[in-house]
Amino acid sequence: MRTVLNILNFILGGFLTTFGWLFATLVSIVLIFTLPLTRSCWEITKLSLVPFGNEAVHVDVLRPDSKSAFLNAGGTFLNIFWLIFFGWWLCVMHISTGIVQCLSIIGIPTGLAHFKLAAISLWPVGRRVVSVEEAQAAREANARRRY
Description:
147 residues, mainly alpha, two-stranded antiparallel ribbon, transmembrane helix, cell membrane, UCP028777, membrane
């Protein structure tokens, strides 16, 4: 089912958002001062291409033992920079694609996936794309560790 939804997403306009993320990734590579954003761009590019079966999870959830206040502050600074230069137009692109996809009954699941991607596109630094199963296992391990 995931494969069918990923193909449907690609056909109904997901390729446009994937190209938008790919363009943002290339721009972040070309501009030297945005090089720290490249990994996050590439991770969300993969998620935009195949949103079903994958999930964007914050790195603190995947590796809670490597939390660092310094790295979190740097990530926040990069996210603010991202929001100003790249995030807002990628968010608008995902929202408009999601609205167009939701106009047809068959496109509602893919449109909802684009609304989730719109939220991620505003604040992507520090997120990694993993399978849904791996994300669930990381959340359960964190819950066991806390309690």
